[in-house]
Structure formats: C-alpha cells, structure tokens
Amino acid sequence: MKEIKCECGHVNPLGTVLCESCGKPIAENQHIDGNEGKKLLNMRYDGTARRSKTFNKSFIDRVWSFFSSVKVGVLLIILAMIASMIGTIFPQEMYIPPSASLAGAIALAIGIGIQNLPEGVAVSMPLFRDGMSRKKSFLYGQFSGMVEPISAIIGVLAVAFVEPLLPYALSFAAGAMIFVVVEEVIPGSQEEGNKDLASMSLMIGFTVMMILDVALG
C-alpha cells in the first residue's frame, strides 16, 4: 500500500487529505516512493468544518469544532437547556424576595464570587496549556468576566420593567450553567486521570454552596 509523506515528515496512509500530525493539506501526488499518484476526489462530507479535522487540536480548534458542527447536537443542547430551565423555574421563583435586603445582597455577591473562580480558571488554564503565556492567559480569563458587570448594570436598569420575567430568566441562566458543567466541565476535569481529585473538588464545592445557603439564609 502506498503512503504519503507530509512536509513535517509524518507518513500518512494513501488518501489522507490532512496530515495526521500537523493538520496541513497534503499534495495529492506526493507519495513516499516518489511515484506520481492519481488524483483522488474526496466526495465525503461529515458535516464539520475543515479546520476541525486536525489531529492535534488546540483550544481554539476544539471551540471551532464545537460551534461549526451543526448537527443533531444543536437540537439536543436546546432541549437540555429547556429541560434544565423548567426544572429550576419554581426554586428560582421562591428565592426572589419581595423586598431586597443587605444580607441577601452580600450572600448573593459571595456566592457569585466563589463560582467565578473556577469559571475564570476554566478559561485561563486551557489557553496556558496550549502555549499561551501566564500573563495573557490570566488577562483573557479576566476579560471573559467583563461582560458580567456590564450585564449587571443593564439588568439593574431593566429589572423594574421585566420583573414578571425574572423567574424565567434566572431559571434559564441556571439551566444553561448546569448543562455546561455536566457537558463540558466535569468530563474535561477528568481527562488527565484526576478523577478522584475532580470528584472530591466537586463534592467540596457543593458542600460549601450548601453551607452558604443555610448560614446566610
């Protein structure tokens, strides 16, 4: 069987379009034995973008692959978010007090601050792992949180007009967070063989959340 050698030196099977090592396109007439090969037409399409076919995927490639694959997964995501939203409508509605208090505001701020720590790490760590410097990874993680105070200001200004929709808006946000954690964060935390540590960290975080919920009312 003839083989194709890429410019990077990796030997690929005949018919390979993108190098399995570097992901670059391979010339169709480039063979390891030096013979000119026949031009092959690749009529296959699996519904994903060309960039997502690289072998060594970076963080950007994985994000690109996630958003460029428009298959049944999009429908499943929407259905899962709707189901999570419905499951949290009534709990969210119960925790909207008729009159806000300083203690409630402090408890809410502490809870949001604690959950923002792993959220920022989830942005910065993949960037650092894929070769970005510590400083840039940290800054990008901080920039990802800039939308929150801006959105909070918009929410404060609009709360008087959309108060009847607050239970549904909060439940949708909670459902989206639950889906992202179950779909991406938990599996990603166990990829490198740290299953016990990841599971214990999840339980500790849940325990802290329950303590804050009971202690701060």
TrEMBL record:
Give the record's membrane topology.
Answer: Multi-pass membrane protein
Any GO MF annotation of the entry: zinc ion transmembrane transporter activity
Decide whether keyword Nucleotide-binding is in the record: no
Q: Which family does it belong to?
A: Belongs to the ZIP transporter (TC 2.A.5) family.
Protein name, per record = Zinc transporter, ZIP family
The protein's UniProt keywords, in alphabetical order, are: Cell membrane, Membrane, Transmembrane, Transmembrane helix, Zinc
Q: Name one GO cellular component term.
A: plasma membrane
Question: Where would you find the membrane-spanning parts of this chain?
Answer: 63-90, 96-117, 138-162, 168-186, 198-216
The primary location reported for this protein is membrane
**What residue range is the signal peptide?**
none
Q: Which Pfam families match?
A: Zip
- Compartment(s): Cell membrane
Cross-referenced InterPro entries: ZIP (IPR003689)
